DNA sequence: GCCAACGTTGGC
DNA sequence: GCCAACGTTGGC
């Protein structure tokens, strides 16, 4: 099972809203980057992603699960991009970007190395460590 | 609010 | 097919 991280500006779509959407989930539309698209295409149903608040908060705040694999994004008029459906699994005590950057073993996280990647893979070790930090 | 990093667009 | 100009993201 691969692990992922998806980003959203809470002013546009927050984890609280994701929780409100319930088990029906929502489509993760709007990705317009080819590398991020590759990651979306690689997602399998049942795989989990960290939900990261960018700009405001700058922290991992929860876990979401893939409930529908890659399909066309109807909001993309070029027809090139797609999306997956995600549902909230659970909230996490926030793990801030600042905290992640202070952890040497997380120095290779895409979140640290390429701050603009909106959908990114997370290694098993990174996943476990961030959960550890969340647990305090 | 600024700006660095990076992706995309379009002229040539 | 190159690359300058431009737009966007997101940390600070």
From TrEMBL:
Q: Which residues cross the membrane?
A: none
The UniProt record lists the EVE domain at: 3-133
Top-rank taxon: Bacteria
Q: Record's Pfam families?
A: EVE (PF01878)
Q: What is this protein called?
A: EVE domain-containing protein
């Amino acid at each position: 099972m691969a692990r992922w991280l998806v980003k959203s500006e809470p002013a546009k779509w927050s984890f609280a809203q994701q929780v409100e959407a319930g088990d029906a989930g929502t489509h993760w539309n709007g990705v317009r980057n080819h590398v991020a698209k590759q990651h979306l295409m690689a997602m399998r149903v049942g795989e989990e992603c960290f939900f990261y608040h960018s700009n405001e908060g700058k922290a991992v705040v929860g876990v979401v699960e893939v409930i529908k694999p890659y399909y066309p994004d109807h909001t993309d008029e070029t027809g090139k991009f797609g999306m997956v459906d995600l549902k909230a699994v659970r909230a996490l005590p926030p793990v801030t970007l600042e905290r992640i950057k202070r952890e040497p073993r997380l120095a290779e996280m895409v979140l640290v190395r390429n701050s603009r990647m909106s959908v990114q893979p997370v290694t098993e070790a990174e996943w476990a460590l961030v959960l550890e930090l969340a647990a305090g």
